Amino acid sequence: MIQYGFVIFDVGQLPNKAEYTLLAEKIILLLRYPRYLLLMKTQYGDEAEILVEEILRQGQDTASSVIIRAAARLKETLKVEKVCLATLRDKFSLLVNKQFLMRCPSPGGETGVPILTIKENLLYIPPDFNLKGLADKEEGKPGDPGDEGVYWRVNLDRFHQDFRDQIMVSAISRHLDDNAAELLKHLLRQMYLRTEAWAATSNPVPFTELREAVRKQSSHPLLGQYLEQYLKIMEEDSSRFISRVGDSSGGQYSINMKTAFTQLTWATIENIVMERFGSKAARIFRLVRAKGFVDQEQIQQVAMIPAKEAKLLTYRLLEENFLQMQELRKSLASNVPNKTFFLFHIDLNQVARMVLEMCYKALYNAMTRREHERYENRRMIEKQQRIALITMNMKEQGATAEQLAEIEEMLTPPEQALLEKVRTMINRLRVTETAFQLIQSVMKRVTAGNPDDAATKALNMKVQ
Fold first, then answer.
1. Do 314 and 269 reside in the same domain of the chain?
2. 464 occurs within a structural domain
3. Are 80 and 427 in contact (CB under 8 A)?
4. Residue 345: HSE in the Cβ half-sphere, 13 Å Cα cutoff
5. Domain check: are 138 and 13 in the same one?
């Protein structure tokens, strides 16, 4: 579990005894592994996907061992006799340069509990090993690739950074259009040149640099023509993803990461209220959000909802913890009649934590239901897999169409209909899991600033 990063250790109360801590967040991230691999496949190709998958399987490993296993898998997949090891080495180095892979800390300390340390400037230096020794080792001959003792692991925080950017770009694309999304991509690229990836607000990006980047790299001609207009629209938009700095011509622009995810969180929670309680409840929720603190009479008057229905919906939102109530006394003196006001308000952090808990429960329910469907129909699924395997073998042996049709008829029409129904159900549950993971990602940014970064730092890797 230490190798996979699920457990960390540190010196305990006794100097020679270690204390172990389970990182629940790291275990939950197992659900994101398919998304990590899909990102690699779409951005860097099949080789990168296999390299990352091999490291995820082992937790951490040497570059030479990962490349040899990846070469064996590629041979089996592509059905070729030889795979270029230099190509895999270059792909591995590319992933290191892009910071998707990082070196593991090494144990230090002469006695007692070892301390895992690594110098910061060594984290993302690509591996340098002997290709001839690597080729000999692949063929089963004695060989020394030259990277013994240097282990690598996946930098999950780098993947989460890309997921965060995708969420923001997708939100802008739906809210405005594709040109605005392309502009945000360029702003993010410029931001990384001068700002830490997880900063709440980026350092200002000069308009001239942004215009030059759009002119050289963008495939959207309208964006270059109306760049200033798009910047102005995004600056004045209620989502406040970007803000202008300075009054000079063109000016400079900053990306408000924290504000952007706060706005996305509000939008997500409002949609949840709309789906669960209806449009009138969503109107009350938006009213309380806009007013900050509001009493029951104001809700009835401003929301334009009948008093009885408004009270029912308000207290239902209160019961479900989407609203909170603050008691306010007009006077604390004991000799005068005391009047108490009850004001409704929204604690965003509390609501976000509650929605996060809902996501965890829904994820568990979806996974349990998926396994139940697979278990209940396991015999039919196994039968379909056997028929598919027989069909594939018969095709390789040159079977005729009539023979293949006869084999496929082993699965009756009712069985085929049931299998299709089960397959559709399982696919829907998988999509549901992905959707809840996206909501979970947004909520985490608000409830704990950046929990994924905190979890990464929680690994006992003291940068020296």
1. yes
2. no
3. no
4. 13
5. yes
State the Cα–Cα distance between residues 190 and 7, nearest whole angstrom: 36
Q: For residues 248 and 184, what is the distance between their CA atoms, to the nearest angstrom?
A: 21
Q: At what angle do helices 257-277 and 156-175 cross, to 10 degrees?
A: 70
Residues 420 and 375: their CA atoms lie apart, in Å, by: 15
pLDDT at res. 462? 31
Whole-number Å distance between alpha carbons of 184 and 207: 13
Can you say whether the dihedral through the CA atoms of 362, 368, 369, 374 is positive or negative?
A: positive
Confidence of residue 335 (pLDDT cuts 50, 70, 90): low
Pull the structure tokens for residue 177.
């259009």
User: Same structural domain for residues 116 and 46?
Assistant: yes
Degrees, nearest 5: CA angle 149-459-355: 140
Of 205, 237, 255, the residue that ends a domain is: 255
State residue 461's pLDDT score: 35
DSSP label of 346: -
- Supply the pLDDT for residue 449: 52
pLDDT category of residue 463 using cuts at 50, 70 and 90:
very low
What per-residue string of b and e applies to 88-108 under the rule 16 or more CB within 10 Å gives b? bbebbbbbbeeebbbbbbeee
The predicted structure's pLDDT at residue 281: 92
> What is the CATH classification number for the domain harbouring 13?
1.10.10.10
pLDDT digits (tens, 9 = 90+) for 51-83: 999 999 999 988 888 998 898 888 888 777 788
| Range(s) of the domain holding residue 139 | 7-154
Task: State pTM to two decimals.
Answer: 0.78
Instruction: Find which of 250-259, 308-317, 374-383 is predicted with most confidence, using mean pLDDT.
Output: 308-317
Residues 247 and 319 reside in one and the same domain:
no
Place of tokens 């996907």: 49
Q: How many domains does the chain have?
A: 4
Residue 129 has pLDDT above 60, yes or no: yes
Judge whether 253 and 244 are in contact, CB under 8 Å: yes
Phi-psi category of residue 208: left, alpha or beta, with phi > 0 → left and psi -120 to 50 → alpha: alpha
Domain termination site, one of 298, 313, 346: 346
The answer, yes or no, to whether residue 432 has pLDDT greater than 80, is: no
Which tens digit of pLDDT belongs to each residue from 5-39?
899 888 878 777 888 899 988 888 888 888 899 99
Q: Is residue 330 located within the same domain as residue 424?
A: no
Tell me, yes or no, whether 382 and 424 share the same domain: yes
* Rg for the chain, CA atoms, rounded: 28
Strands (E), 125-202: 151-154
| Residue 1 located in a structural domain | no
